């Protein structure tokens, strides 16, 4: 009788182990496949409808002055703001930026924009969130950013170039990273910030890793893309 009970318990433990392995495989593999497909479709759809040229403007003697950045109104929840390109993450890295940070956005559509923060180009804090290991793993390599790395945001209005400054590990309760001037309550912003947030460590969620960047420049869609991402911008037309 005891032997039979031990055998049954052993079989249940094996079954539980198999179920757990299948769940881990689904979480770390299948969710990435599903999310990658939907994100690629979103990027392709945006690129297909983008009105600007896909080649950079001819070089000039000095840096062109395009005036103050155009700042769009935030779209409705689940709508697309644009595309983010991060060369440090590889030559094929292009991810959609979607309004909202609820699970329906982050688990499927890519980078989610915190609705309480600024839009690209505006003085203040343009803040986005993204998963690190599942659901497309859009910020898996956030820890690899090096000061001086360029991060590009493409919207229907043009291209916004941010320069990575530093990262910070904080507890999930640290919502001050989303302030107009990150971590500085009451401060009035005079610059444009890009703040990216994700879970830390890579396979956990006990902390948050925060990457801060500053707006360096912008150019309208009519000027074509920055030279560094011209090929990527053109390649997005072929995604789908």
Structure description:
It is a single chain. The protein has about 240 residues and is α+β, with helices and mostly antiparallel strands. It has one domain (about 40-240): Sortase (Sortase, Chain: A), CATH 2.40.260.10. Helices cover about 25% and strands about 25% of the residues. The chain is built from three helices and eight strands; from the N terminus they run H-E-E-H-E-E-E-E-E-E-H. The protein has an eight-stranded mixed barrel. The chain is globular, with a radius of gyration of 21 Å. The N and C termini lie far apart (about 60 Å). About 35% of the residues are buried. InterPro entries: Sortase, Sortase_Class_E, Sortase_dom-sf, Sortase_E. This is Class E sortase. Pfam families: Sortase. It comes from Arthrobacter methylotrophus. Keywords: Hydrolase, Membrane, Transmembrane, Transmembrane helix.
Q: Biggest sheet: strands side by side, in what order? A: 1-2-3-4-7-8-6-5
The helix content, as a percent range, equals 10-25%
- N to C succession of SSEs: HEEHEEEEEEH
Radius of gyration (Å): 21 Å
Sheet of most strands: 8 strands, mixed, barrel
CATH class: Mainly Beta
Q: Name the poorly predicted regions.
A: 10-27
Number of strands: 8
Classify the fold: give the CATH topology. Answer: Sortase, Chain: A
Number of helices: 3
Cα(first) to Cα(last) distance is 60 Å
Percent of residues in beta strands?
25-35%
